[in-house]
Write the structure tokens for this entry.
Amino acid sequence: MELTVTAALLSTALLLVNLASILLASFKLKRRGRIAPPAGKAPPVSIVVPSRGVEPFAEETLERAFSLDWPRYELIFCVAHADDPVVGPITDAIALFPAVPARLLVGDDRISGNPKLNNCVKGWEAARHRWVILADSNVLMPRDYVQHLMAAWRPDTGLVCSTPIGS
């Protein structure tokens, strides 16, 4: 009986903490305004997109990656194997949006036990620009994605993270 009451209290406390975090995230999201594209000199960025398999909404996420409001960026898609089913949609998107510099890099680099990190490293090394963004392939980036990341940067910053929201 005592164990049941303790479990019920713990479950209730965890549920309340979860609800509080959802409310906090909702409040912060509502305040997020759209940032206009930079008018002056904006540094070019390389966006590395590790990919594996065709995920739901792949067409939409690919299209959005090619439609960002940043004056100069390149997209570097990375897959481990040439026979991955996502290769077709990526090559189709690259052909559909020739104005955005984009490449598909294929290779199973083994620098760690983490497959996603292994997939990213070739893109990081191939990046043509000083600023590098790692963006998961299943993230529907807002058009002002790069602006938000760059706006968070300070001289004493080492890394900026943009945690995606799931639905």
